[in-house]
Amino acid sequence: MPHKYQTLKMRQITRNEDQPRETFNEEALNELAASIKQHGLLQPIVVRKVEQGYELVAGERRFRANAIAGNITIEAKILLADGDTEISDLDSFKKAMAENLNREDMLPMEEARGFKRVLDDEHDGDPEKVPAVAETFSKSVPFVNQRLTLLNLRPEIQAAVDAKHIGTQAAVQIAALSPANQKAVFDDWKKGDKSDNQLVHIAYAMRKQEKAAQQDSMVDVEELSPEKKAEISRAQAKTKSDLDSIERMCELLDGIAKTDPMELARLLEGQVGKRLDQIDRVATFLQNARWKLKQAKAHADASELMVSADAAAPDLVGEAAAALARLEPSGEDASEQLEADSPEGNQGETPAETGAGAQADGASNQENALDADSAVQPERADADAKAEPVDLAA
Fold it and tell me: For residues 186 and 343, is the Cβ–Cβ distance under 8 A?
């Protein structure tokens, strides 16, 4: 796109009220302002000509910091119309979105609403066009799908995600639930004793139970026969007995652990390697069993939180839009506006968002902020129940 560079007066430029990023770190803005005072503005802002002066396209943070620094002028890259083709509002929005995605740590819901707007305005909301949206912003298709999935969250959970109290991986799993069960999970999380890992597993387990309940509702569930009841009872007794036997092995393993290594080498003369392989096999089985029990715990927790066994697939987007409409009587587009109260009861340690890049607001890294979230992205939330979740890195 043709352009030119020019020094503009700050008062000639108006902010773009439609720009995708809504939240800025005040401390980081002040740090950038201090850097501008000392070194000047290292990169110009981007503007377009409008009827009265110029409108900011990209560089909102630099524009704000330049004002804080007390400067009355600013270096600007002015986008020019290409022949008869004007710079549309959507083009301006996409440029601002691209800059923030690649140079700033946008909030997850800001990204979600930005992707949704482009999908709606440029592709009529066709989900088959998500790859085109992803290509526009040099993001993976799973990343864009994940962010779009977050729009299914209840407003109070969206606010918690933007506040980085709940990580995006947990949020994606929660977004797959019915609104009532989303609230149940969120209310339980507010007690302060659930990590992101636990949220991922509980929400995943709850979704599986929702689907199972939906399938069960389609058929007549017959009363279990006496034989089936006896079979279940035997399986329960065997499982508990097996776990009790494993517990008794702890004393044996503890004895090995307390033996001096030189003494072990003497006692196992010629068999040390073989016995080490034996213990390694035990460790592998133990790890697999522990994983299954962790999932079982998640299912037990999910069962306690389930609001209703009736899990017919809800219109999650519609529910979220309706909730936002109640919060915003003006009726503004719910995909572009989110003004929800902060969740109550967030006492104690806040769960960190696993895998998220650090906020890149300082002058030294303003051009190279990383979005590490994109390294681990699940497919669409409605497909998450097909694959078991993995533990998030600590």
Answer: yes
State pTM to two decimals: 0.56
Q: Could you give the angle at the alpha carbon of 1 between the alpha carbons of 55 and 51, nearest 5°?
A: 30
Give the list of residues 6+ apart from residue 356 with CB closer than 8 angstroms, or none: 105, 164, 167, 168, 372, 373
Q: Check: CB of residue 190 under 8 Å from CB of residue 151.
A: no
Nearest-Å Rg of the Cα atoms of the chain is 27
The set of residues, in sequence order, having a beta carbon less than 8 Å from that of 29 and lying 6+ positions away, is 61, 64, 65, 68, 361
The gap from C-alpha 227 to its chain's centroid, in whole angstroms, comes to: 46
pLDDT tens, position by position, 4-44: 777 888 888 888 776 666 677 778 788 888 888 878 887 78
**Are the CB atoms for 76 and 139 separated by under 8 Å?**
no
Q: What is the Cα–Cα distance from 81 to 200, expressed in whole angstroms?
A: 48
Of 234, 167, 176, nearest to 205 (Cα)?
Answer: 176
Dump pLDDT digits (tens) for 323-343: 444 444 443 333 333 233 333
Cβ–Cβ under 8 Å, residues 1 and 58: no
Q: What does DSSP say about strands 54-58 and 13-14: parallel, antiparallel, or unpaired? A: parallel
CB-CB contact of 324 with 338 (8 Å): yes
Which pLDDT value is given to residue 108? Answer: 87
Q: What is the pLDDT of residue 310?
A: 45
Residue that has been written with the tokens 């522990």 in this structure: 290
CA dihedral 225, 230, 231, 236 (to 10 degrees): 130
Going 197 to 199 to 202 to 207, the CA torsion angle's sign is negative
